[in-house]
Fold:
Amino acid sequence: MPELPEVETVRRGLQPVLEGARIARVEARRPDLRFPFPEKFLERLTGKTITALGRRAKYLTMHLKGGPVLICHLGMSGSFRIETSDDSEMPDSSEMLGAFFHERSKSAVHDHVVFHIVSPEGARSRVTFNDPRRFGFMLFSEGAPDTHPMLAGLGVEPTGNALDGELLASLLKGRKSPLKAALLDQRLIAGLGNIYVSEALWRAGLSPLREAGTIANPGKKAKQQRDALAEAIRAVIADAIAAGGSSLRDYMQTDGSLGYFQHSFAVYDREGEPCSKHGCGGHIERIVQSGRSTFYCRTCQLS
Ligand SMILES: [Zn+2]
Structure:
């Protein structure tokens, strides 16, 4: 499942092609994805200029001039593919552009939505949404995306300096759930997923089993811990975005090499391996919390 850094990577890949460009035509090759396409889906997109391509948590937001905002979610296996041509003749796949795309996006059977795009300079591109498992979706928001019911309740973004120790303390204060579960709660922090929570807790040296609210305790120690945790959350997300998003078997680079990111997680999917924290000597364990795998080192994630 794509996590926030992958979605941000997709956004950055699409942005140069979409922003400022016009949607000449749209094809929807089936009536639905996870949800039916909204009413007048094609009509409301056709001819519109895309003013901005944003992101909120794991939602992409395509802002249309004088029209609705198209909210896109990649679901479990969704991806976009960009093909660009100088003339109206579309190239074959060997001429694909776009740094990242889903391995299975090569199968045209799963090409569900095709945007025919014309740049302000007249260059034509085809942007295809491919989704084998069809958990992705596209919906319209009539107002600002944050007012849409899907996005209205989302918590703070795990990127940027807004997420600091004090904000974490205010979010987690009084919560009895394990720290791992609280950090996965999208109403508190939006877009932080299973992989990066495990990574952040390891970096901060905190136990995933700890009661979440204790991070807001008075005293120097808890303050250091929540500052370290906020820093670790921002850093794991920033590092992953910088590296072009984690790939986890699903996202591939155009040269076909499988995502490098699966080799660079410190704890995720590393059960039984030695902990890589200097001088630790412990091993990574896998436990299950709320039905999800948690990877951690009980030797250095004590507190
Ligand atoms: Zn360790």
In short: Residues 87-104, 246-263 have pLDDT under 50 and may be disordered. The pocket of zinc ion is lined by residues 275, 277, 280, 282, 297, 299-300 (CB under 6 Å). Residues 155 and 188 are 4 Å apart (CA to CA). Helices lie at 4-18, 41-45, 149-152, 165-172, 179-184, 194-204, 220-242.
